[in-house]
Amino acid sequence: MGIQDHYLDEQVLHITWSDGKRSKYHYLWLRDNCSSAFHAITEERTFDLLSVSDDIRPTAVSIDGDKLHIDWSEGDHRSSYSFDWLRKYAYSVDFAQDRSGRVESWDKRFVDVIPQGEHEAIMHSDAALLTWMEDLARYGLALVRNMPATNEAVVETAERIGYLRRTNFGLTFDVRSVPKPSNQAYTADALPLHTDLPNHETPPGYQFLHCLNNESSGGESIFVDGFRVLEDIRVNAPEAFELLANQQIPFRFHDDDYDIREHRPVISLNYLGEVTELKYNAHLADIFDLPEDVMHEYYLAYRLLMRQLRDPRYMIQLRLGGGDMVVFDNRRVLHGRRQFDPSTGLRHLRGTYVDRTEFRSRLRVLRRTQGQGN
Amino acid sequence: MGIQDHYLDEQVLHITWSDGKRSKYHYLWLRDNCSSAFHAITEERTFDLLSVSDDIRPTAVSIDGDKLHIDWSEGDHRSSYSFDWLRKYAYSVDFAQDRSGRVESWDKRFVDVIPQGEHEAIMHSDAALLTWMEDLARYGLALVRNMPATNEAVVETAERIGYLRRTNFGLTFDVRSVPKPSNQAYTADALPLHTDLPNHETPPGYQFLHCLNNESSGGESIFVDGFRVLEDIRVNAPEAFELLANQQIPFRFHDDDYDIREHRPVISLNYLGEVTELKYNAHLADIFDLPEDVMHEYYLAYRLLMRQLRDPRYMIQLRLGGGDMVVFDNRRVLHGRRQFDPSTGLRHLRGTYVDRTEFRSRLRVLRRTQGQGN
Question: Which N-terminal residues, if any, form the signal peptide (chains A, B) (predicted)?
Answer without folding.
Answer: none
